[in-house]
Amino acid sequence: MNRRAAIRRLLFIAGGTLLLPACYRQSGQATIELSNLEIDEEQENLLAELVETIIPSSDTSGGKELLLHLFVLKMVDDCHSPEDQKAFTAGLASFSTYVREQTGEDFMKLGVDKRVAFLASLQETENEEVKRFYAMTKRRTIQGYTNSKYVMTDLKKYELVPGRYNGYFKMA
Prior knowledge:
mainly alpha; 7 helices
């Protein structure tokens, strides 16, 4: 073995040991830097599952695949008032306990049908924290989806029923 090959392998090993901890994110912190919200990793994962339930993946990309939960967090962090931010974090914290009280299971462990049924039942709930949190999350999720690069570039444009007017159409 020559010296250059040994140094090259040593550098690969050193680089791998520096990058390996970044692959296993167990820090407990959110993925993105937030200035006004305090969100941990578990709450971010819960929000990702909630966004995936609102916009599920099928033949098109879903909410988790488009990272809409990060969009929701960033929009609430940057664009909402401090009162809305406090209501969002309080609602996110009480959402998991509310789900556990109503269904007996965590939201992450529920099946897709039960998740959809639970979210539909949130319209009639008396828990204002959860209702306000869900309304903000749903609004920002839909906004993020409709403004995403995927929707703007890849989805086909819908043309209304009568179609375009073509004044130069030749009759046979």
